[in-house]
Structure formats: C-alpha cells, structure tokens
Amino acid sequence: MTFSPITHLRHFDLAVPDYDKQVEFYGKHWGLTATSDGSDLTYFAAEGSPEQYVVRVRKAGEKRLDLVSFGAANRQSVDQLAGYLATAGVKLISEPGNVQTPGGGYGFRFFDLEGRTIEVSSDVEVRQHRKIEEREDIPVRLSHVVLNSPNPEITLAWYEKHLGFRLSDTLNHPRTGDLFYFLRCNDQHHSMAIARGPHASLQHASFELRGLDEYMRGSGRMMRSGWQKLWGPGRHRAGNNTFTYFLDPNGNTMEYTTELETIEEDTWHPSVFNVQDAETSDQWGTANDMDDFITKEMFNDPDQGLYIAPPV
Fold first, then answer.
1. Where would I find the VOC domain in this sequence (predicted)?
2. How much is the pTM?
3. Which of 4, 13, 17, 311 has the lowest CB atom count within 10 Å?
4. Superfamily of domain 141-299
C-alpha cells in the first residue's frame, strides 16, 4: 500500500447474550455514558472523547465481536481505500456511502482475512466532549483493541499491506516464537495489536484514563465493587503503559490504562521483547504473575460472527 488511510481507532461493537448486565457494566461501573439506547442496542461514549461512541452493545443469542471501526481523513481516502481493497480481492460488505449510526459520516465495511467486520469512515460529526478533571476515574477515550489470531504473522501482514498499519514492537518467547504484535496508525504506540491464540476472537479492549492517580483510583474502584481482576495493576514494557484487566459480565477482557507511549515516526525502530523477562510484562513488579488462567480468559470464546456481517 502506498498510502496510510487509517487515522485512528473509533469504536468496537459487541453482541452479547447477557445484554442488560453488559449495559449496566459499561454505564454504572466502567464509567462510560450511554448516548443512545433502545431495547436491544446501546451506544456508549467516553466523556473525554470527540467520538460519538467508543463501544456499542447489541443483544444477541450468541456472543461475537460485531465490528472494529477506524477513522479516515476524508471521503477521498475512504473511496481510495475501498477501490484498493476491491482490486486486492478483499470482500466488501458495503460500498462507500452515508453511515447510518450516530454521528453519520461517510464510510464502508469489509471483512478482514479472518472474517471480522471492519469499518472505515470519515466526516463523522464530532461529539461535544469535555476535559476530564483531576481524580475523575472514568475513561477519557478508547485506547486500543487486541485481536486473537491462530495465524498472527499472516494477520499482521494483512493489516500492514491492506490498511497501512506499522509494526511498533513484538513480544517473543524464545521457544514458541512471536506472541504479540503491536500496530500503530498514528503517533500512539499501538491502536491495535494481534495476539497469538487458538481461534479468532477479541483478546481485550483498553480504555485510557486521565493519569496515574485516576488509573489507580479506577482500578481500585472496580476491585472494591467485586469485578474479577485478571491482571494488574502494573506497567508494560512495550508501549510503557499501565494495565489492569477485568472480566466483563459476558467474559470479555476490558483494560484500564494510561500513559501509552507516543513515538516519532521517522526515528522509531521496532524492538523484540522477551516475555520471559519479568519486566517485559510488568516493569513495576506489582502485578500478579501471568498464568494459564489469565491466558485462557484472554483467549476468549471463538468469535461466532466471522464472515457474517452484523445486522446494524
């Protein structure tokens, strides 16, 4: 690809069987704001983000990742990307046109190589947002999404070739090989990542808080409320961001983070970090050890929506 059409991550959309508990989780506990809701569909915004919404929850019989949405600079970039993907043999779900979700815009959807629905859009109306204040322990924005793949090297190459993502860093195990690829589309260390897993699924989604104090307060609030903490608090080496991971009511992993590294595009050189080095996972040494239980939970359930476009 000779151009990089993707500017940023907009939102991710989930379908879940236990809809009411998922809606309560995001609105009452996680710190998001419901901006548009109905009996079977709710949109959640982050108070500090200009995006119309950062998560959409849909009631469904089977759990799935409905889609991941990215922003593009303008309509020309959207059209250029759609034309390129069609020529490259990528299956388009829709042609570029008006987006029928809050904020409108101009965009289209397509399947990635493993069957996930991806949306790219521009000209979405900016939501009225605000500055998150000191000690306010709610998400400022959606930070990144991580996708499990049984063939992460092939998935990495696909996103590099077709969407212009750039590799920031890699996590490697000396015996089993590469486990995790961090990908960027702007100066944030990663807006998405590809993790090695037994099947295609959402590994986790991460939300940026205002700063260290707010991150710790948010993590503590979730723990005091009885939500199952998988891992953290700690600070990763790749990306230099903090982490605390929790399970949501439908078994998806959600992360609080802050201080994700920003990089200089022209001078950055990707590193390979050994996961057997304790500081790769947690520079502080404060988090519980990564174990088989955490790994299994982050593998998540096999995605039931591959090559099936969501109804909304």
1. 8-123, 141-259
2. 0.97
3. 311
4. 2,3-Dihydroxybiphenyl 1,2-Dioxygenase, domain 1 (3.10.180.10)
